[in-house]
């Protein structure tokens, strides 16, 4: 019995000696997720996930603008509405975009629109009545006219300022499709049917307004039908139309960085205050600076954001950063009076990061 007790004492002494060799100061061994080095690496990884997703979105094709309402010519023919109508081929060549305001959806272009038709069945004076929908300013010069076989080819130099409704649900990661609708509302589809094709819409190769690159072109011909009396479907106004569409891809990382970069940086600076041991005043100064910076940066976001009646991913993310930083501020104020449990602080540190990056990925998923 005494021998067994002596053996246990010897084993206990050996265990204590081994622990002292491993941990000579006898300090408590912290779990990995409590260690400052791991927390700092984790924070950098989460920040990297934000920028990785931003880069992925920049390389994705995100166009959501719907085609303006236009009825195809085929529907007219099936209804025997277009018998005897003269076919007019239409095309557009764009030389320049003097104004290209994506945030406001206001654009102006300079170029030439051309018409190809039979002069024996249709007069040039009728063609000259063409106009553009949603145009606030429109000028045209006298046409350049020449005969190609038995058809007349008329080219009108034009300058038009117009509005195109854009969708910004993924701002600032949206690509955009701009629509310009040409009509002649003084004639009906019984008299004229426009024909337009993708090959008839061209743009100068060097044009990249404010970094937006044109990548796709389309032209849809048909007619527009406006109902004048909801109760009586026979009362309507219809006229031939062509919708020209140009798709632009976003300019690159610069705009995204200016809009999102400072908010992300300030948010993570606030998170860093949770890692500082002691020095409650220093932590409070850091988080107040982060909160102030976020409030100031909102003015920059407002200047660069489109005027829309719905929240964009930038708005949601900003509100999330602001609320999270405010929570961190409350924690630091509380610790001026009483230290908070370390487990609770670490839980908040990890939870806020996981939640924000998950929300960001969810908001930008198309």
How does this structure look, described?
With 366 residues, the protein is α+β, with helices and mostly antiparallel strands. The chain has eight helices and twelve strands. The strands form two sheets. Strands 2, 3, 5, 6, 7, 9 and 10 form a seven-stranded mixed sheet that branches. Strands 1-11-12-8-4 form a five-stranded antiparallel sheet. The longest helix is centred in the C-terminal third of the chain and has 25 residues, at 280-304. The model is unreliable at 6-11, 16-20 and 75-82 (pLDDT under 50).
Summarize this structure briefly:
Keywords: Membrane, Transmembrane, Transmembrane helix. The chain crosses the membrane at residues 40-58, 259-276, 283-301, 316-335, 347-364. The chain is of the alpha+beta class and 366 residues long.
């Amino acid at each position: 019995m005494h021998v067994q007790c002596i053996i246990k004492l010897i084993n206990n002494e050996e265990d204590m000696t081994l622990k002292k060799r491993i941990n000579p100061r006898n300090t408590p061994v912290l779990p990995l997720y409590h260690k400052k080095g791991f927390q700092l690496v984790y924070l950098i990884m989460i920040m990297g996930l934000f920028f990785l997703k931003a880069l992925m979105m920049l390389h994705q094709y995100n166009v959501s603008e719907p085609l303006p309402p236009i009825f195809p010519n085929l529907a007219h023919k099936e209804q025997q509405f277009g018998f005897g109508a003269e076919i007019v081929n239409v095309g557009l060549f764009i030389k320049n975009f003097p104004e290209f305001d994506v945030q406001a959806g206001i654009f102006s272009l300079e170029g030439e629109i051309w018409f190809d038709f039979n002069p024996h069945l249709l007069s040039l004076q009728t063609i000259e009545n063409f106009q553009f929908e949603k145009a606030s300013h429109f000028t045209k010069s006298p046409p350049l006219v020449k005969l190609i076989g038995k058809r007349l080819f008329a080219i009108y130099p034009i300058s038009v300022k117009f509005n195109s409704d854009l969708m910004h649900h993924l701002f600032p990661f949206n690509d955009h499709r701009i629509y310009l609708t040409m009509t002649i509302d003084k004639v009906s589809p019984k008299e004229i049917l426009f024909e337009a094709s993708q090959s008839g819409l061209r743009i100068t190769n060097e044009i990249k307004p404010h970094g937006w690159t044109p990548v796709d072109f389309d032209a849809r011909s048909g007619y527009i039908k406006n109902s004048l009396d909801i109760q009586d479907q026979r009362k309507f106004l219809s006229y031939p139309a062509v919708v020209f569409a140009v798709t632009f891809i976003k300019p690159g990382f610069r705009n995204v960085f200016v809009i999102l970069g400072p908010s992300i940086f300030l948010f993570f600076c606030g998170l860093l205050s949770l890692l500082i041991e002691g020095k409650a005043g220093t932590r409070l100064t850091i988080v107040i600076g982060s909160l102030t910076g976020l409030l100031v940066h909102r003015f920059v976001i407002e200047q660069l954001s489109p005027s829309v009646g719905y929240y964009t991913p930038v708005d949601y993310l900003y509100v999330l950063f602001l609320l999270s930083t405010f929570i961190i501020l409350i924690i630091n104020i509380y610790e001026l009076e009483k230290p908070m449990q370390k487990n609770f602080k670490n839980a908040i540190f990890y939870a806020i990061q996981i939640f924000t990056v998950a929300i960001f990925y969810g908001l930008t998923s198309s």
